[in-house]
Amino acid sequence: MLDFGSRAAGDTRKITANIDHLFELLHEADHRARQAGNAAIGIDAIQGAIDAQRHRAGRIRAEVQEAILRGKVLIDTAGAAVGQVNGLSVFDLGDFAFAEPVRITATTRLGEGQVIDIQREVELGGAIHSKGVMILSSFLAARFSGNLPHSLAASLVFEQTYGHVDGDSASLAELCALLSSLADVPIRQGFAVTGSINQLGEVQPIGAVNEKIEGFFDICQARGLSGEHGVLIPAANVDHLMLRDDVLAAAAAGKFHVYAVRTADEAIELLTGMAAGLPQDAGVGAQLTLNGRVAARLRDLAALRREQPRPGQIKRAAPSRPKHNAH
What we know:
This protein is α/β, with parallel strands linked by helices.
């Protein structure tokens, strides 16, 4: 009951003050205990009541998971891909919330420093989500283009989403997708990512961390846990972890992992298996670190941009000088 109360509060150091919510669970557990002929409410009755509540509220969750498992919604949980990462979206149904993975993709090319948020462009993105994209764009420019033109054009999108998207909890995932695209280094698809980012590259806490972990776990478990699956969460959310018993058992067996990260560099190292390094690595060792590869790519884009004529400007050939024959 204490675990249930802490889970409802979303904090291991607190318990919910919604007494009615606790009484409802006890009433159902009492009914189960009486049916089993027990004189007192035991752990099996309480867990059975919890599972029954989740099942009754889980019809939409089951439909979403079925769409993923049947390939209608494209989510990879194995292999690796460039510019593609699994984010985690939350569905709030009032008294019940659940999360499912969502594919986030990024493309990059020569431009003038603009990161296009496709959700915002089509008016399916909220103000907080747009703020998160602007912050990660500012981080990229400040880290890699302090002394040269930020000659990047990029696009970010939540694939196969047809409703409103808000919140900044996917900004870490979006940043990692951009870095992967720029560096041309694939991201492991057995991972999902949640967390917001600030202009200094620090990972900030988010809400519904338990639901997000369990949403990705359910898909991975249905496809078969390989020991290479896991979720990256902000380190500041560790105190909020109150996971289901099956998730804890899989983690204890080494079949599923939860990684707590403090910076974007820690996250991208886990996702790619490549050392993050520093932007200064863009010289001889650029191929050895991810940040070095990103910096080298942006330098190449800046050089290409300098060679391009400005809008309305036409490059003219230099006039030929008359030749004089020597006598």
